[in-house]
Amino acid sequence: MFNIVGNGYVQLLQMIVMPLVFASILSAVARLHNASQLGKISF
Predict the structure, then answer these.
(1) What DSSP designation does 33 have?
(2) Maximum CA pair distance of the chain?
(3) What are the helix (H) ranges across the chain?
(4) What is the Cα–Cα distance from 33 to 39, expressed in whole angstroms?
(5) Residue 29's pLDDT is what?
(6) Spatial CA neighbour of 24 closest among 41, 36, 3, 40
(7) Are 38 and 29 in contact (CB under 8 A)?
(8) What pLDDT does 3 receive?
(9) Closest CA to 35 of 17, 20, 43, 8
(10) What stretches pass through the bilayer (predicted)?
(11) Do the beta carbons of residue 32 and residue 38 sit within 8 Å?
(12) What is the pLDDT of residue 6?
């Protein structure tokens, strides 16, 4: 019983969190003014 509820809870979190993370990364990249700033962030 708890296994089913736990798996459902984890899947719900993944459905909510993953698009938020993806959207925030895209938003941050879109705000960059030039490509050299991207290298500073990623490495």
Answers:
(1) S
(2) 52
(3) 2-31, 35-42
(4) 12
(5) 79
(6) 41
(7) yes
(8) 87
(9) 43
(10) 12-32
(11) yes
(12) 92
Q: Cα separation of 30 and 26, whole Å?
A: 6
- Owning domain of residue 9: 2-42
> Structurally, how many domains does the chain consist of?
1
Per residue in 4-34, pLDDT (tens digit) is 899 999 999 999 999 999 999 899 878 877 7
Length of the chain: 43
CA angle 20/21/23 to nearest 5° reads 65
| Other residues' Cβ atoms within 10 Å of the Cβ of residue 33 | 6
35-38 — which CB contacts under 8 Å span 24+ positions? none
